[in-house]
Amino acid sequence: MATPNSASPQTPVEARRIVLAKRPQGEPQPDDFRFEDVTLPAPAPGEVVLQTLYLSLDPYMRGRMNEGPSYAAAVPLGGVMTGEVVGRVVASNDPQWRPGDLALAFAGWTTHAVINAKELRRVDPQAAPIETRLGVLGMPGFTAYVGLHDIGKPKAGETVVVAAASGPVGSLVGQLARQAGARAVGIAGGARKCAYVKEELGFDAVIDHHQTDMARQLAAACPDGIDVYFENVGGEVWNAVFPLLNAFARVPVCGLIADYNGITARPGEASVPELMRAVLSKRLTLRGFINYDLESYRDAFERDVGAGVRSGKLRYTLDIVDGIDQAPQAFMGMLKGRNFGKLLVRVAQ
Amino acid sequence: MATPNSASPQTPVEARRIVLAKRPQGEPQPDDFRFEDVTLPAPAPGEVVLQTLYLSLDPYMRGRMNEGPSYAAAVPLGGVMTGEVVGRVVASNDPQWRPGDLALAFAGWTTHAVINAKELRRVDPQAAPIETRLGVLGMPGFTAYVGLHDIGKPKAGETVVVAAASGPVGSLVGQLARQAGARAVGIAGGARKCAYVKEELGFDAVIDHHQTDMARQLAAACPDGIDVYFENVGGEVWNAVFPLLNAFARVPVCGLIADYNGITARPGEASVPELMRAVLSKRLTLRGFINYDLESYRDAFERDVGAGVRSGKLRYTLDIVDGIDQAPQAFMGMLKGRNFGKLLVRVAQ
Prior knowledge:
Chain A is an alpha/beta fold. The first copy, chain A, has helices at residues 60-64, 139-152, 168-179, 191-200, 214-221, 235-241, 272-281, 298-311, 327-335, and strands spanning 14-20, 33-39, 47-56, 85-92, 102-105, 112-116, 121-122, 159-162, 183-188, 205-208, 226-230, 245-253, 285-288, 318-322, 342-346. Chain A has two domains: 14-134 and 317-346, Quinone Oxidoreductase, Chain A, domain 1; 139-292, Rossmann fold (3-Layer(aba) Sandwich), CATH 3.40.50.
């Protein structure tokens, strides 16, 4: 029953993949990961073999390494680490896909995967560089867009604060806030990132969280308080932001990278009753969201951010490491803020 | 320049009023209040003399007794305690008002006040009992209505939890939730209030917070978790509610009576990082609001709740004490949950 565009691989496909060997205690360590070389089965009808070109590494993956309830299932012990890729179809047993087609899929940390064709999203390499589909035009960009539009809703003259401001979410949050006429204040780690945020991305102000007096600097950079705090880090940044929140401030909560390795008490931080008192007296909105809950924004996102990227008005930076073997080290470094821009692993070309 | 409907009082009006003598440390004490007997000035043009018929006592007043920033200014030391009243115009120097007219105003804890006519809202005694303008058809009812409609948004089959369920806010929250097809679970203090909430107000379940195992009982009463928690008390109730919140739960925050006398650490309660992790992973919405921020709901409220009160479908209970001299004691008792229904002071008839 082979159709002209279905091609079983002539030779079995060998894949190298990375599985969760142990659940990390605190910061992930190299031996929490294990490499496996496997021979993939031939694709069944409706399936394709996808070769990973770029693997996206994102903070949320740290949460998937833990047991316990969260918004998505944990990676099982021995299971392939979860992750989105841009890949190339190298064999297809589905009439909609031909070898050479490019697609997005949650293939995981692997060089190749057999995937149900229904789980692929087609990528047009003419529309934008394919790497952007994992960054500014992918999940991180969409996260920035929906969090700002559905929750943050910055108005002209308001102040929007975001941390990890040189990263794929924060960089777009600040640029979109400025497009809305708001002041964008970024927080980033180190002089190089701060210079990029201010000079390349055009934020109005930037704070280096490596400085010891971040809270004081943030207050100075936000003389009119904070109207939108796009929460993607938690920790000390939250403590610095909290007293500066204005009446009717909105806090979209999309990530808490500071706590992903475990929550530690921070002396001097507000208690829950103090937080709730501020929620009441300042009429704050705190709202958690996951990008895929807000798919109704997809078309507007593709239109608005796509146009901005094509025209060069919206800037982004990629941090690319080469080879699947580098994924664990790159991921561990990202959790410490060592990446500069959207972190990708180039697995093949 | 007297007009036919302006009448200067023939004799000066004597007023008895209650001022803030000291800022309470923790629970208010009798000597935090002081009675004053004063002779009021004659009303200037555009002013009236309003005689208080009913004075509303509400938990928010505890906050006004403190210094420091909140959503409204503190009562100054020596100032008349703030409060809304239904009163009767006894002298008018404004063409829009005649003696005998009934009005709502923030006259404070006083038998009489000279008030700018612009600050009066007319009360029609034919439309509903005038006492309801301070309860189910007044600020507490409006608070329930806007918090539920603008933030809680209960859907059929969802579970809505509210504390102080026999009080003027909680009782309407539960009844409106049931009108929306949701399950209403109330928390109240003592067997008598609980019986009223279940049998008279028609809540699906009620928990007595005087019981030691409130958290376990609440979990049993919410087998499908909690979708809307209307937060008006804080404290131990919040600790019992928090682990039961479902994904996408909404928490309108309108009051924190448990903490009004001061925040004390509660062992075992979630930290802010744990709260924020839940906000993220469950996509919770926490939003503070003050009823007067949401005036756009006024007409819908008057229509919906007015109809419910007139038809008897929406029930309410008043707790009326007689005489302005009783106000401090009644207020202190309310903060301990000793009132049963909307607490009013009948100052004159």
